[in-house]
Amino acid sequence: MNAIDELTDSFSRLPGIGKKSAGRLVNYILKADAHWVQRFATQLATLQEKIHPCSICGAWTEDDVCPVCADPLRDHSLICVVEQPQDVATIESAHEYSGVFHVLGGVIAPLEGIGPDQLRIAPLIERVRGGEVKEVILATNPTVEGDTTALYLQRLLSPVDGLRVTRLASGLPVGGDLEYADKLTLARSFRGRQTF
After folding, report:
1. Max Cα-Cα span within the chain
2. Which residues, 6+ apart, have CB-to-CB distance to 68 below 8 Å?
3. In 3-state terms, what secondary structure has residue 155?
4. Section 150-173 average pLDDT
5. Which residues lie below 8 Å from residue 58, measured CB to CB, with a gap of 6+?
6. pLDDT score, position 113
């Protein structure tokens, strides 16, 4: 196996990149400016040294506390619970949410051996019991595991006095056609319908 094959194999291990895409990336890098390739290699090599989970919410950050948690203008009484650190960036890109986050680090998946103890649930409970939190938004993915995790958290958090536990709405996407919607999406759309 030569250097091209080795790098192609490494790139193909990344999510969403097959052998053909990996090969195109390798060929792009071979033709690219040497200074850019060197900078890219350095950035890649030092990424895990520079980036780590926020000590409060678990989102990726270079500092001890991420910019969202450190922002005094954010609504710290509102916590959005997500599965992974990259979900924070996805929600932030919509510019619709002004609260803070809590990253679980996964979902409850018994078939994969992941139970509640493997997730960052205890720190969430500590934050809620601190008394400042008024609402927890469960923003796990609408999958069996995501729904199971949301239900588990809802049952765990609902006894807390004065705390509102909500779930992100799910249903038909904007611009979508009914004929292409699956049964689960349609069912969720009907259950989550609203008056206007």
Report:
1. 63
2. 54, 57, 59, 74, 88, 92, 100, 101
3. helix
4. 89
5. 85, 101, 102, 103, 104, 105, 120, 123
6. 92
Distance, CA of 186 to CA of 129 (rounded, Å): 37
Name the nearest CA neighbour of 116 among 79, 152, 87, 80: 152
Tokens of 139: 């923003």
Instruction: List, in sequence order, every residue forming a beta bridge with 60; answer none if it has no partner.
Output: 53
**What span, in angstroms and rounded, lies between the C-alpha atoms of 101 and 82?**
7
Q: Using N-to-C axis directions, what is the helix angle for 121-129 and 144-157, rounded to 10°?
A: 30
Length reported for the chain: 196
35 phi and psi angles, rounded to 5 deg: -65, -40
Q: pLDDT of 65-112, one tens digit each?
A: 999 999 999 999 999 999 999 999 999 998 999 999 999 999 999 989
Mean residue pLDDT of the chain comes to 91
Dihedral (CA of 24, 27, 32, 36) sign:
positive
Determine the Cα–Cα distance for residues 95 and 55; give it in Å rounded to an integer.
Answer: 23
Separation CA 101–CA 91 (nearest Å): 10
Q: What pLDDT is attached to residue 25? A: 96
Percent of the chain with pLDDT over 70: 97
pLDDT at 177: 72
Positive or negative, the CA dihedral 27, 33, 34, 36 is negative
What predicted TM-score, i.e. pTM, was given to this entire model?
A: 0.84
